[in-house]
Amino acid sequence: xxxxVVSVGLAVQEHLKIRKQVIRPLTPSGAxxxxxxxxxxxxxxxxxxxxxxxxxxxxxxxxxxxxxVVELYPALNPLGLDSITRGVPGFDLxxxxxxxxxxxxxxxxxxxxxxxxxxxxxxxxxxLHASNIFLREIxxxxxxxxxxxxxxxxxxxxxxxxxxxxxxxTVLESTLAxxxxxxxxxxxVVEMGVGMRITEHYVFQxxxxxxxxxxxxxxxxxxxxxxxxxxxxxxxxxxxxxxGRPGIFVPCVQHWINVEKGELIGRILNPLEGTxxxxxxxxxxxxxFTLREYPVVSPGSLLxxxxxxxxx
Length: 312
Known about the structure:
By secondary structure, this protein is α/β, with parallel strands linked by helices.
């Protein structure tokens, strides 16, 4: 059943509507757990759209195995999705910096408030993101150090490759995940793929993990995969690789491989002079889990992230 979370009037008698798909068991008891999946906060992130579709498709094929309530919010920022804009068009802001919002204020704050209130009381929420158009990310869960003890058991069931635990100081309190966790709704942030694209095998990998997690929670009784054991970085060193020169970045390595300290990762080229402006090397030995996708770079542009350690 499709339900409207919030409807806001726009110019020329138009409306912004945020809607969700609610799937309930065939024979509800009234005591079901509630599992929520939200995505589309950023209008250039499309991986979550396919995840929602695939979840609905698989659940409807085996409705007899559903024992809880599943709610899917595929487009929290519909204006951004429609215009392929990362933020909220017309307001020049990142929607994920507006939570928990306020009821009587600007349109984005009002919408954020309604979303949070609608998600209140859920037993678990997944906040799905892709990367931006510049970077490719492996399927991963990100969480703050202060929530890690509580959230890690859920993250281990999601069939992702990597769990990155941030220091609490780096977590923005205005994000949806932080607001929900502060309200007592366990919320995991999933990041994967690249902006404006869909990486199908990442989607299938995560959807398999979501069903495994729902089975662990007693929401799903069908067959599921055995989730892969993710690499968990609590205190591991992460090396950031940034461009020193402008130009066109061409990587020399594949994404999601082990690299040695000092290994060549890529080159920044000058297409006007036909020269190599800069050779880029790994700052440490470890796992390359982020790699530049968009080739045009300026000084300071992020090119890669490397998780320090031996993962061979």
